[in-house]
């Protein structure tokens, strides 16, 4: 995604490609585990473009997945994901001459649209809700 943006702007890919390539590999290596954590209701997407643990009782839970180092907690997994998202948002913002916060909120919207109904999303108010419940609220007659 970032590489496509960089190339479309005609920028030299050497510097950005290293960053984008490294980030892409890390995102890909975490993707299945992130989806599993979302499916289990332990991690959700925020309206700011980051992931958070839905309930603090999961913070120190160890992830049992071959794709992550043994002993990795959900807290450290989420921290790594958010750190890489911050780097990606900054990279895209630099290339597109915009703000990283704008890139992040656009990504949050995209991730919300891709989320399954059982996944949790965090409202700007700070409340966690499953996407299907939010959709039901929106479609309920008033």
Compact summary:
It is built from five helices and four strands. The chain has helices at residues 2-8, 13-39, 74-96, 100-114, 131-139; strands at 43-46, 51-53, 120-122, 128-130. A hairpin with a 4-residue loop joins strand 1 and strand 2.
Task: Explain how this protein is built.
With 142 residues, this protein is α+β, with helices and mostly antiparallel strands. The protein has one domain. Helices cover 57% and strands 9% of the residues. It contains 5 helices and 4 strands. The chain has helices spanning 2-8, 13-39, 74-96, 100-114, 131-139, and strands spanning 43-46, 51-53, 120-122, 128-130. The protein has a 4-stranded mixed sheet with strand order 2-1-3-4. A hairpin with a 5-residue loop joins strand 3 and strand 4 (128-130). The longest helix is centred in the N-terminal third of the chain and has 27 residues, at 13-39. The protein is globular. It starts with a helix and ends with a helix. Residues 1-18 have low confidence and may be disordered.
């Amino acid at each position: 995604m970032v590489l496509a943006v960089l190339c479309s702007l005609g920028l030299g890919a050497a510097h950005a490609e290293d960053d984008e390539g490294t980030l892409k590999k890390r995102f890909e290596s975490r993707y299945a585990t992130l989806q599993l954590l979302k499916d289990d209701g332990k991690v959700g997407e925020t309206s700011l473009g980051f992931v958070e643990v839905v309930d603090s009782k999961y913070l120190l839970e160890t992830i049992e997945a071959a794709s992550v180092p043994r002993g990795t907690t959900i807290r450290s997994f989420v921290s790594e994901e958010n750190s890489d998202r911050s780097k990606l948002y900054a990279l895209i913002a630099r290339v597109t001459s915009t703000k990283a916060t704008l890139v992040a909120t656009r990504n949050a919207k995209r991730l919300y649209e891709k989320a399954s109904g059982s996944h949790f999303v965090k409202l700007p108010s700070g409340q966690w809700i499953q996407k299907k419940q939010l959709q039901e609220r929106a479609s309920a007659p008033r």
